[in-house]
Amino acid sequence: MFDFKLTRESEATVLDVSGAIIGDEDRDILSETFAFVEPDDNLILDLSELHALDPGAAILLHDVLMRRAILAESVIISARPAVSMQLVLHDVDRVCPIVSNIDLATDIIDRPWAKRRLPH
Asked: What is the DSSP letter of 79?
């Protein structure tokens, strides 16, 4: 079971996820959570309070972030080795940077190349 919270930080939407994402039900809820994030918003996905992430959830994140990469930048915050390992094993680090804190994530999102926006 996990909780999430959406906020704005600098030039990005911040999706804070805490708890554990294990099993089909959690993966379904995680997938639906991304509906609250505009597709062209830069995203900071803060997993620093996530204690566990199963392989299926890591695959889901890879796929969601890959689709989002066309329109916006994403950065993941992950400081727990067990969570970071799942992300790396499922190539999420090839889709977006994985950093250890919000300051590093904000620095990446605030770079001029990350501020591309599609005309509305």
From this structure: -
Q: Domains plus CATH for the chain?
A: 2-115 (3.30.750.24)
Residue 113 per-residue DSSP state? G
82, containing H or E segment: helix 81-89
pLDDT at 57 over 90: yes
CB-based contact 71:118 (threshold 8 Å): yes
pLDDT at 111: 78
Query: Computed from CA positions of residues 8, 112, 40, 65, in that sequence, does the dihedral angle turn out positive or negative?
Result: negative
Compute the mean pLDDT over every residue in the chain, rounded to the nearest whole number: 92
Q: What is the mean pLDDT of residues 44-59?
A: 98
Element (H, E) at 109: helix 102-109
Q: What does the alpha-carbon distance between residue 40 and residue 114 come to, in Å, rounded to a whole number?
A: 11
Task: Give the C-alpha separation, 27 to 58, whole Å.
Answer: 9
> Could you report the per-residue pLDDT of 23-40, keeping only the tens digit for each?
999 999 999 999 999 999
Query: What H or E segment, with its residue span, contains residue 6?
Result: strand 2-9
